[in-house]
Structure formats: C-alpha cells, structure tokens
Amino acid sequence: MIGRFILSGCLLAGLSVGAASVRADGIAGETGAPQAKSDGLVVTLGGWGLVEPNFEGAGRYSFAPRPILDIRGVNDKDWLSLPKDGFGLDLYETGNFHMGLVGNWRWAFGVHDQRGFKHIGSVDVSVEAGGFAEYWPADWLRTRVELRRAFLGADGSIADVSSDLVWRPDRAWTFTAGPRLSFADKEFMNAYYGVTPQQSTASGLRQFDASAGLRAYGAGTFAKYKWSEQVSTMGFIEYERLSGETLESPLLTSTPGVRHNGSADQFTFGLGLSYSFVLGGFK
Prior knowledge:
The protein has 283 residues and is mainly beta. It has one domain (2-279): Outer membrane phospholipase (ompla), Chain C, CATH 2.40.230. 12% of the residues lie in helices and 49% in strands. The chain contains 4 helices and 14 strands. It has helices at residues 2-15, 111-114, 186-193, 197-203; strands at residues 22-23, 41-53, 61-73, 87-93, 97-106, 109-110, 122-123, 126-138, 141-152, 157-167, 173-184, 213-226, 231-242, 265-279.
C-alpha cells in the first residue's frame, strides 16, 4: 500500500514541475473549442481515490490512489476520458474518431500472502502497452476498444471493449453509463488464474491451465461536475463479473482446508478531483 502512494505521488510531483509559469484561463469544455489564443498545452492533473479488489478475483477490498494525467494542444478537441481508460496518446483524429497508443498497469500482489495459499507465487506490478480506437456514432454514444500487451510483470494480452451512453444536461454536468467486455489470451489468464504443477505440489491446490477467451463482463457509470473551466470533481462505479474459465480456477473456488478469498463479482468505486491549466505558448 505504501508503494502505491509513493508511485502515484512521484508521478504527480514530477508532472507538476514548471507550474509556476502556468496561466490558467481560456480552457474549453469537452465539446467546444478553447477560447485562448495560444499554441500551448492544456494540462490536466489530479487523482482518484479508489476502493477496489486487492487483486484479480479477490473477495476483499482495499484503498488505492491513481493519478489523473491528460495533455493536449489548446486547439485540440477535449475527448471524454473515463476512469477505466488507459493513458492514451492520440496519433490520429477526426471530428468523431481518434486512435493512438495506450498504456496501463496493474498492482502487484503476493498470492501466498493475500489469497491464503502458501508458496503459490505472486505477480509483480504489470505494465501494459498497446493501442486504442474510439468512435462516437453520435454525440450521446461513445464506443472504445483497447488492445494491450503486458511487457513487465505478468505475461499476456488483453482486449477491453466498452460502450457508453453520454448525457450532458448542461455545461457543468456529464453522466455516462454502459456495458463492458474483457477478453484475454492464454498467457494472461494463466498469470492470474492458473496453477502450475509446481504450485499445485507446494500449495495442495489442483493444477489448473486456463484457456484464452472471455475474461469478464460488466457495466459502469460515471458522473463529472465542472466547478469552473479548471476544477472538476468526478465519481464512478464499475461492476465486473469474471466469466469463462476464470470461474473454474482453484484460486476462486472453495478448497477443503484452505482459506478461500476469491469472488467472481468485482466492484470498483472511485472519487476524483482534477485541475486543468494552460502551459506555455502565449505571446
């Protein structure tokens, strides 16, 4: 837990350097063009306070911080960003479509510590990178897909697909709600749900080799209130139901004589605060 705070704090502190030269005005909303005559950058910094499962498939919850970071040109469109989105970098965009690079991470956990199974191993902090594409068929409908590959920590690839109805009753409020799907390959499934022969011998759990397929399905809802063009507060709830072969993993099913902490129902709750400012580019 301490490591989570240190990591998030370092990210936010490093990104805040140079804020003394910031002029915080003329920032547009998500649907309009900015008013400032500048070729500078709009930087959004902030943080989420999350209540989430301790690890993939956990039945227990803990608090975790997560930084908010967004950088765009003053004259670029301000795309709606939802809490479960990875950190994206646009490479191409039109009026209702954009695509680019995306990254994300998952916190480390020690299976032998948190799941109650001795000597079954752990998964380090997992860093994932890949690409995203987002399409808006209408102003009130957002669709998005992210394809990511873990290159540090866990192994494997994952694909997250989402769709959200978007309602903006006025310039201050934004509400969204919609379904979620998550697919993973064999490597990813076994990193989080598999039990190798060696782990089986050491822990007493049966061996389990997972296959690629649907990892989870669910839904999420989000609300944002803009107190000004600079300051916003947000809240969200996400529900995820583990599916497919994940439900057959001995890490999620009861085992005689072994403490069982797993759950197929995964909830995440979060409250966030963000601050936007314009950096540089003024004549």
